[in-house]
Amino acid sequence: MKCPYCGSKETEVVETRDSEDLETIRRRRECLKCNKRFTTYERIENINLIVIKKDGKREQFDRDKLKSGIIRSCEKTTVSLEDIEKIVTEIERELRSADSVEVESKKIGQLVATRLKALDKVAYIRFSSVFKRFVDVEDFEKEVKRLIK
After folding, report:
1. Tens of pLDDT, residues 95-127
2. Are residues 64 and 38 in the same domain?
3. Beta strands in the chain, from DSSP E residues, in sequence order
4. According to the model, what pLDDT value does residue 70 have?
5. CA separation for the pair 76, 93 (Å, rounded)
6. Domain co-membership, 76 together with 97
7. Is there a single domain that holds both residue 33 and residue 75?
8. 16 contact partners, CB below 8 Å, separation of at least 6
9. Average pLDDT in the 85-99 region?
10. pTM (predicted TM-score)
11. Is residue 21 a contact partner of residue 6, using CB atoms and an 8 Å limit?
């Protein structure tokens, strides 16, 4: 590791900690030449996930896109940003642990819907209306009746 202050490559790790999400490692380092300390973060480099859209097109998995879709569904509900982040992390972890690097968008939608259904019914209905492409009020009505049962 190169010192950001003097450029020396002679540094040592003084302290190592896992982050709360266990996805990154925080390291405090000290330069042996100038004696200044600095922090580095290490993250495992993940293989890119490919999402297969309904029309057959492929695009790279975008964690932020998934998160923003869930946030829109959860507006004006009691679902916290922390809950949303947890859902996104769980889904991404599940997708990355699968056998394939390609996943259908339908599968991602089902994973989100399942988690929202358990967390907040209104957010679930909002998400489902887009994910399942509700066309009219009857579609909403059917889904709400299924939810009530």
Report:
1. 988 888 999 999 999 999 899 989 988 888 888
2. no
3. 11-18, 24-31, 37-43, 50-52, 58-60, 102-104
4. 94
5. 27
6. yes
7. no
8. 25, 26, 27, 28
9. 91
10. 0.63
11. no
| DSSP 8-class letter at 20 | T
Tokens found for residue 44 = 């495992």
Q: Which domain holds residue 30?
A: 11-43
Angle formed by the axes of helices 105-119 and 81-96, nearest 10°: 140
Look over the chain and give the mean of its residue pLDDT values, rounded to a whole number. Answer: 87
Query: How much of the chain exceeds pLDDT 70, in percent?
Result: 89
3-state DSSP assignment of residue 22: coil
Single out the residue of 139, 108, 110 nearest to residue 124, CA to CA. Answer: 110
User: Considering only CA atoms, which of 19, 23, 21, 41 is closest in space to residue 86?
Assistant: 21
Cα separation, 55 vs 93, in Å, equals 25
